[in-house]
Amino acid sequence: MKPPPFTWHGPRSVDEAIAVLGEVGSEGKVLAGGQSLLPVLAMRLAAPAHLVDINAVEGLDTITVDASGVTIGALVRHTGLLRHPAAGNAQPLIPQALSCVAHATIRNRGTTVGSLAHADPSGEMTSVLALLGGSITAQSTRGARTIAAADFFVGPLESTLAPDELVVSAHFPGTVREPGTTSGTAFAEIARRHGDYALCGVAAIARVDAGGALLSLRCGYLSVSEVPLVLELTDAWNDSERAAVELARVGVDPSSDIHATAEYRRSLAGVLTARVARTAIAKARSVPELRAG
Amino acid sequence: MTESRPAGRRLPVTVTVNGVARTADAEPRRTLSDFVRHDLGLTGTHVGCEHGVCGACTVLIDGDPVRSCLVLAVSAQGHDVTTVEGLGQPDTVTELGPVQRAFRDCHALQCGFCTPGFLTTITAGIAENPTPTRDEAVDMIAGNLCRCTGYQNIVEAVLTAARYAAGDDTPGGPAGHGAAGVEH
Ligand SMILES: Cc1cc2nc3c(=O)[nH]c(=O)nc-3n(C[C@H](O)[C@H](O)[C@H](O)COP(=O)(O)OP(=O)(O)OC[C@H]3O[C@@H](n4cnc5c(N)ncnc54)[C@H](O)[C@@H]3O)c2cc1C
Ligand code: FES
Ligand code: FES
């Protein structure tokens, strides 16, 4: 259970980090919080020849909240984001989901951007980024590019990030504020033990009009598909709760493992969809309406 | 300048452990848990699973509980690390810190393998939340596994440690024995 040997690089700036990543190419891996990478190395599931440790890189630990939402640097630890009240106000799904990411001790070290880069379809934040239509910004010696969540996750633990790219930040869109409408969010998951990876988790965003009628309902799923799954449930819900639950049950594509059977996960997806949808819609209806002008 | 350390080469690593700057040679792949145990000789930190699941190896880095098996020693350079050896209070009769006294008084350990990880986690936990409720106490230790105790007495020790740390020395006791500090 010891990591295989690797050459360690300790850059101090983004420029230095991308220079090393450019040199080592596909032989290298970025080391952020290490809460996913070090277990992978300890279990010898990977043996990169070079680790580029970004823990001492300046300027990557900022959280910016503006009208568009929340932008976090690559070294923002889960705990730091969870404890940022302005980030939670701008996008309530962030703290709702983050409090289910692992245990506090893991959150103290693990970074939210690292968990996106890890592209685990069992990760809470990958699913939240996908549901919100967020993006990540990557930098390499070839330049910078911003990748939409929909184009980023391509398979379990697989993203469209190139080996020489460093994710410098991620952007989570904030609550949409449009006159005459209000929105609400909710997150729920089932894990054997609080803090463990979920057997199934669901995030929901609902928008209602001034009369309380549902305009939009979208849910994001984790642990029940190969990439973070987003389902559009508005019409189904307006038809009946049962129709929306059924759509969720057929929409997910879970597999069986030692923790749960596929059928159990599918059943949880239905149950949790009803639960978070009801909560999100109720919250949307209770928000004071934003008036034009 | 990017510092690079070649694979397999043992180079000096300096970490402040329990207030003292300590240096030892280590390979890049050396975890902080192995560094404090094997290179610094501080064997109080225990290693169970080596992949972040059991919590036995928990130390404080700059005051926050972290799995030392999931941090490289080189990444900890320049940081303050507190291990279980740093939790005592040498100027007191028992030389035990409040969390250690609570563990003794509440019978919160049996084999003791998991204990160092609980002690560090709870020390930071009650520093952050000096008056935890029982639910908060349960949540505080949710990331640590114990194969022996069944957790009841550890939860009791969290509540008792919080009182001890606040200067209330009414002794705690094992859960279910009606001792002071046990809420029913
Ligand atoms: C016991 C345990 C339980 C856990 N439970 C959960 C859980 O319930 N839900 C959950 O979501 N996570 C869970 N995690 C994982 C945790 O959230 C990790 O912190 C996270 O997945 C990875 O973040 P990190 O900073 O530790 O990344 P690292 O482990 O350092 O890196 C992970 C991967 O991402 C790459 N990477 C990281 N940062 C960058 C970057 N800036 N640019 C390019 N590539 C990068 C690395 O090269 C590596 O491939 C758990 C971990 C443990 C040990
Ligand atoms: S040994 Fe580190 S968490 Fe188990
Ligand atoms: S006391 Fe034996 S594992 Fe906890």
From TrEMBL, chain A:
<dbReference type="GO" id="GO:0016491">
    <property type="term" value="F:oxidoreductase activity"/>
</dbReference>
<keyword id="KW-0560">Oxidoreductase</keyword>
<dbReference type="GO" id="GO:0071949">
    <property type="term" value="F:FAD binding"/>
</dbReference>
<feature type="domain" description="FAD-binding PCMH-type">
    <location>
        <begin position="1"/>
        <end position="177"/>
    </location>
</feature>
<protein>
    <submittedName>
        <fullName>FAD binding domain-containing protein</fullName>
    </submittedName>
</protein>
<dbReference type="Pfam" id="PF03450">
    <property type="entry name" value="CO_deh_flav_C"/>
</dbReference>
<dbReference type="InterPro" id="IPR005107">
    <property type="entry name" value="CO_DH_flav_C"/>
</dbReference>
<dbReference type="InterPro" id="IPR036318">
    <property type="entry name" value="FAD-bd_PCMH-like_sf"/>
</dbReference>
<dbReference type="InterPro" id="IPR036683">
    <property type="entry name" value="CO_DH_flav_C_dom_sf"/>
</dbReference>
<dbReference type="Pfam" id="PF00941">
    <property type="entry name" value="FAD_binding_5"/>
</dbReference>
<keyword id="KW-0274">FAD</keyword>
<dbReference type="InterPro" id="IPR002346">
    <property type="entry name" value="Mopterin_DH_FAD-bd"/>
</dbReference>
<dbReference type="InterPro" id="IPR016167">
    <property type="entry name" value="FAD-bd_PCMH_sub1"/>
</dbReference>
<dbReference type="InterPro" id="IPR016166">
    <property type="entry name" value="FAD-bd_PCMH"/>
</dbReference>
<dbReference type="InterPro" id="IPR016169">
    <property type="entry name" value="FAD-bd_PCMH_sub2"/>
</dbReference>
<dbReference type="InterPro" id="IPR051312">
    <property type="entry name" value="Diverse_Substr_Oxidored"/>
</dbReference>
<keyword id="KW-0285">Flavoprotein</keyword>
UniProtKB/TrEMBL annotation, chain B:
<dbReference type="GO" id="GO:0016491">
    <property type="term" value="F:oxidoreductase activity"/>
</dbReference>
<keyword id="KW-0411">Iron-sulfur</keyword>
<keyword id="KW-0479">Metal-binding</keyword>
<protein>
    <submittedName>
        <fullName>(2Fe-2S)-binding protein</fullName>
    </submittedName>
</protein>
<comment type="pathway">
    <text>Alkaloid degradation; nicotine degradation.</text>
</comment>
<dbReference type="GO" id="GO:0046872">
    <property type="term" value="F:metal ion binding"/>
</dbReference>
<dbReference type="Pfam" id="PF01799">
    <property type="entry name" value="Fer2_2"/>
</dbReference>
<dbReference type="Pfam" id="PF00111">
    <property type="entry name" value="Fer2"/>
</dbReference>
<feature type="domain" description="2Fe-2S ferredoxin-type">
    <location>
        <begin position="11"/>
        <end position="87"/>
    </location>
</feature>
<keyword id="KW-0408">Iron</keyword>
<keyword id="KW-0001">2Fe-2S</keyword>
<dbReference type="InterPro" id="IPR036010">
    <property type="entry name" value="2Fe-2S_ferredoxin-like_sf"/>
</dbReference>
<keyword id="KW-0560">Oxidoreductase</keyword>
<dbReference type="GO" id="GO:0051537">
    <property type="term" value="F:2 iron, 2 sulfur cluster binding"/>
</dbReference>
<dbReference type="InterPro" id="IPR012675">
    <property type="entry name" value="Beta-grasp_dom_sf"/>
</dbReference>
<dbReference type="InterPro" id="IPR051452">
    <property type="entry name" value="Diverse_Oxidoreductases"/>
</dbReference>
<dbReference type="InterPro" id="IPR001041">
    <property type="entry name" value="2Fe-2S_ferredoxin-type"/>
</dbReference>
<dbReference type="InterPro" id="IPR036884">
    <property type="entry name" value="2Fe-2S-bd_dom_sf"/>
</dbReference>
<dbReference type="InterPro" id="IPR006058">
    <property type="entry name" value="2Fe2S_fd_BS"/>
</dbReference>
<dbReference type="InterPro" id="IPR002888">
    <property type="entry name" value="2Fe-2S-bd"/>
</dbReference>
